[in-house]
Please model this.
Amino acid sequence: MTELLNPLALWSEGVLAFGGPGPPRMAGSTLSDPEGEPRSGAMLMRNGGTLLLAIAVASGVFACGGQEETGQGNQAGDEGIGEMDASPGLPEGAQAISFLGEPLFPPELTPEVQARREQQLGEALKALEADPEGVEAFIWAGRRQAYLGEYRESIETFTRAITLHPDDARLFRHRGHRYISVRELEKALQDFMIATELIKGTEDEIEPDGQPNAAGYPTSTLHFNIYYHYGLAHFIAGDFEEAEPIYRACMDASIHPDSKVATAHWLYMTLRRSGKNDEAREFILDLELEGWAPEVIESGAYLDLLRLYQDGERVPNSPIPDMDPTTMDGAALSYGVGNFLFYNGLEDEARAVFEKITSAEGQWASFGYIAAEADLARLRVP
Model:
């Protein structure tokens, strides 16, 4: 089977290899138990010693050569992204290499936004200087770096923090998010696997917003964000069987309607891409969308998509909403539409939508863009 290898390594070597068409999966990302059955990543850390070892490796305590071996994933005739860990060779100033082999640079911000975020970062770095081992100071420094598109610096900041606070799930949650941003999915999955173990048996907590929403109050929690991004990493990799139980756990952790809408969107797409059409139909038609709608603040694009999915299950040839992939919401909406077209057998039309999304380079760190990019990589002819 042809795998999509590490795009950064392939770019530096001048070689690109892509998998064939069809829903993507990530080869080798599902570990197997002694009986040979694939296990969810969340099941791999039951033993406390194993968890400590994983944390030590993730925090850079051990320096190991070579690549970690993984078992063969659940095979369904689909091909996907293979190894995704980083390798040297980024051009100067670039933060990542896309799944299509293109270097990705920090997106250009408006002067007003740039100035505000630089000021916020300066304040965060001063706070870290005053409290050089403080976990809160590390978290805000890393988040502020990421908001300026400096994802590599953000990852480095969270890595330093993990060496000091290896049992703080928040650090793995935030670093895992930024590994998704730079297309290093294996590292992201490892971080979220550890984070899910660290939160077991703990009470959930509100996660402060780095960039406040229109209402001025946060709508998500730590547990939600861990499951949400963990499921997303599997989805982008094409690991739909792995993503499904994680998104179901995320639905359980979703308290605010914004969180419920966002999770329901990705879970429905996961079921459809898994070929579980009956389950997807039952799930989407059971959602009380209009009961959630009045309280939705941030996830309006996902709400519009869920309405499309419901209408599509009831009435064929549902109207497609207008799309503008140059905004974050527009990229999310566009990807949902492209995916809707894809799993309804309209591959050429879906490809056109995915190409439109990836032409809006300023959104390359948004989830809709990353997912579209991964799908386009799989749709390329080897």
